[in-house]
Amino acid sequence: MNTANLTFEQGVLVGAGGVALFLFILLVLKPWLRALFSGARISLIYTLGMRLRFNPTDFILDAYLELSKGGYKIPIEHVECLYMKYKYELKIPHDLAVRALAVHMNMQKNRDHQPDVAVQTEGGLSE
Predict the structure, then answer these.
(1) Which residues, listed in sequence order, are joined to residue 126 by a DSSP beta bridge?
(2) pTM for this prediction
(3) CA distance 41 to 34
(4) Are the C-beta atoms of 98 and 104 separated by less than 8 Å?
(5) How far is the C-alpha of 103 from the C-alpha of 101, rounded, in Å?
(6) Does residue 117 sit in helix, strand or coil?
(7) Do residues 43 and 69 make contact, with C-beta atoms less than 8 angstroms apart?
(8) What Cα–Cα distance (Å) separates residue 48 from each residue in 36, 45, 51, 76, 82?
(9) H/E element holding 31?
(10) Model confidence over 29-39: pLDDT tens digits?
(11) 3-state class of 25 per DSSP?
(12) Are 51 and 41 in contact (CB under 8 A)?
């Protein structure tokens, strides 16, 4: 490409595009690649969504990687929701991982011990 024929406006657009691409790689692609190479697969769109929600991607990702390396299959969506709920109580990513694990274990315990109760409705019994 011959850059001598570019106008100033075209040069500004090319420069802005380069800056936008650099920011995209730095802010979105870097955490996604870090998760991918660590063995915890997350969506690139979800990483972008965390950035748009102004949640600290590295903090949430550190907690999620700690959980996934420990063998726990807790969705990153749950980890992020717990971050948003308890963000003023969390100091380090390990705190978020411990909180997410406790909530996950409590949900599993409640699901496993829930009795099967038939509910009577107008039309008869319903399960």
Answers:
(1) 119
(2) 0.73
(3) 10
(4) no
(5) 5
(6) coil
(7) no
(8) 15, 5, 5, 13, 18
(9) helix 30-38
(10) 899 999 999 99
(11) helix
(12) no
In whole angstroms, how far apart are CA 36 and each of 1, 65, 77, 102? 35, 10, 16, 25
d(CA 103, CA 22): 38
Q: In this predicted model, what pLDDT tens digit does every residue of 56-100 receive, in sequence order?
A: 999 999 999 999 999 999 999 999 999 999 999 999 999 999 999
Q: What is the DSSP string of 33-83?
A: HHHHHHT----HHHHHHHHHTT--HHHHHHHHHHHHHTT----HHHHHHHH
Amino acid at position 81, single letter: C
CA 42 – CA 58 distance, rounded (Å): 13
Query: CB of 80 within 8 A of CB of 50?
Result: yes
Residue 8 burial (CB count, 10 A) = 7
Q: Bridge-partner residues for 120, per DSSP?
A: 125
Q: Which two tokens stand for residue 39?
A: 């063995």
